[in-house]
Amino acid sequence: MSSNLRFEVRPGGVLRGDIRVPGDKSISHRSIMLGSLAWGTTQVEGFLEGDDALATLRAFRAMGVEIEGPADGKVTIHGVGTHGLQAPDEPLDLGNSGTSMRLLAGLLAGQGFEVTLIGDDSLSRRPMKRVTEPLALMGAEINTTPKGTAPLVIRPVDGLRGIDYEMPVASAQVKSCLLLAGLYADGETWVTEPAPTRDHTERMLRGFGYEVMEEGPRRGLRGGGSLTACDIDVPSDISSAAFFLVGASIAEGSELTLRHVGMNPTRDGVINILRRMGADIVVSNEREVGGEPVADLRVRSARLKGIRIPKDQVPLAIDEFPALFVAAACAEGETVLTGAEELRVKESDRIQVMADGLQALGVQADPTPDGIVIQGGSLSGGRVDSHGDHRIAMAFAMAALRADGEIVIDDCANVNTSFPGFVALAASTGLQIGASDE
Q1: Across-strand partners of 308?
Q2: Is residue 319 annotated as a catalytic residue, yes or no?
Q3: pTM of whole model > 0.85?
Q4: How confident is the model at residue 2, as a pLDDT?
């Protein structure tokens, strides 16, 4: 697939149907990592067969883990135990996946062999000091470029030591990285978060039989334990569901049901924010699958109104803001986001790229250092550059539901990192979308 894949979305349309979006990316990554380190055989269902999660799978294969699949979302991992990984023959190429690189930096820091982590152009620009600096405090030896970016060269050390680390910025990737390094450290490793972040790593470690301690905003574990294989049924990714929640909210006459969606309380900010804007979302059939809450969501079109987004919801919706910005553009009045500087170091600078795209569609969108101010109104057609950011490409595709002309979105190949089959699934619900290679 060429990198200049382009989405062409005709204006208007109504979303209807009963769908299941692909599996959660965060849980898919971690199922491979922890399944590989566990004793026994882990069976995974609902695995996300997107480029990012597949990069993690290939990395563990390269380190000697036998993994069958994926086939229709099923993966079988024959775990090698916490000390069973082998040095790969060449650098581990993690593509576009920041989660893979940051979590693997921690997991591999105490392995006792040298390994180099590389990625694509986008990943090679993303900041890695936020993990390499605290790992250095644990005794890890990791070399980066002078800018603190990949490639990461992880060298063997005699051993890691547990630390008590206060994160300057709330980040699930940093927390997970340090907890995974803590598996290999002497003593206890504790991480304090300034705000709650997604807790998939803690939940899944417990699922594999590893004790994780909690004291208020602190999470900790003792090094030296072992993991036991377990079966995992990956819920649908709420980040992928978010595009359809927004699309059905803004397109008059829409009614859509989304099945088996992950409802982790550290990830449900998009639902809380949309409801506050006036969205009609009904949650039903709530249950727990493999330690993770899941539910079915029914969303109907509604008149949205602009809001000041509550700061406590920002970390709970950090990946969903591209979709939420489109909702804000279609809402009545002004939407204000603050406290979201993290968005500037995602796959792209999501604040600037979304502001540029919204402005190209005739929306008043004013970026600020830690957020954005969006005046709701009408959207024109136009051409938008997603800058290779999968979530931005999908957000602007949904914007066409309310635009008065065609929206063309450039540089969309990376949608496959998180949502393979997006175009076909969106078209099946009523979005008038096509894709073409230039």
Answers
A1: 336
A2: yes
A3: no
A4: 41
Q: What's the pLDDT tens digit per position in 162-215?
A: 999 999 988 899 999 999 999 999 999 999 999 888 899 999 999 999 999 999
Give the residues across from 228 on adjacent strands: 39
Partnered with residue 54 across adjacent β-strands are none
Catalytic residue among 24, 51, 237, 319: 319
Rounded Cα distance, 325 and 354, in Å: 8
Check pLDDT > 70 for residue 347. Answer: no
CA distance 212 to 376: 44
CA 76 – CA 337 distance, rounded (Å): 42
Angle (CA) 5 414 431, round 5°: 65
Amino acid (1-letter code) at residue 323: A
Under 8 Å between Cβ of 118 and 93: yes
Residue with the two structure tokens 């990069």:
55
Q: How many CB atoms lie within 10 A of CB 274?
A: 25
What's the half-sphere exposure (Cβ side, CA atoms, 13 Å) at 60?
A: 31
Beta bridge partners of 433: 9
